Amino acid sequence: MKLYTVIERFYVSKFYLLIPAAIIILACTGSFVVYYLTRSGLGPLNFIQLTICVAASMGYLASVLGQMPRKVTFGFFFYGMLIQIVLLAINLTF
Questions:
Q1: Which of 15, 40, 50, 68 could cross-link to 63 by cystine, CB 3.0-4.6 Å?
Q2: By residue range, what is the domain housing residue 24?
Q3: Cα(32)–Cα(50) distance, rounded to whole angstroms?
Q4: Cα(25)–Cα(7) distance, rounded to whole angstroms?
């Protein structure tokens, strides 16, 4: 929990500087997830994972464009990144 608060403080203090970096990071991670998902075919389970991946990225973008508070925006970024990393780990191992 301490790591979360340290990263959150850094993000909030440099909010406008980190918005483009966060978008690029989420886009690149999402691209890796989509690549590994579609590489093995587009079955029902892969389509559900693809929808979750896109929703995680879209949540962050919507929070930035909706001008939500900085801490809420960081929450969307952090959990969206966490979801994408978990999906990537699942698809790399199986």
A1: 68
A2: 2-93
A3: 11
A4: 15
Tell me the DSSP string of 5-43.
Answer: HHHHHHHHHTHHHHHHHHHHHHHHHHHHHHHHHHHT---
- What integer best gives the mean pLDDT of the chain? 95
Q: Look at the pTM and tell me if it is higher than 0.85.
A: yes
Mean pLDDT of 4-16: 96
AA identity, residue 15: F
Residue 54 DSSP label: H
- 76-79: long-range contacts, CB 8 A cutoff, minimum separation 24: 77/11, 77/22, 77/26, 78/4, 78/7, 78/8
Alpha-carbon gap, residue 94 to 65, rounded angstroms:
35
Look at residue 1 and tell me whether its pLDDT is greater than 90.
no
Q: Count structural domains, the chain.
A: 1
Apex 50 CA angle, 62 and 19, nearest 5: 30
Q: Which residues contact 77 (CB under 8 A, 6 or more apart)?
A: 11, 22, 26, 60
